[in-house]
Amino acid sequence: QVQLVESGGGLVQPGGSLRLSCAASGSFLRLYSMGWYRQAPGKQRDLVATITTGGSTNYADSVKGRFTISRDNAKNTVYLQMNSLKPEDTAVYYCNVDVASSLSHMRYDKWGQGTQVTVSS
Question: For residue range 29-39, what is the model confidence (pLDDT) as tens digits?
Answer without folding.
Answer: 999 999 999 99
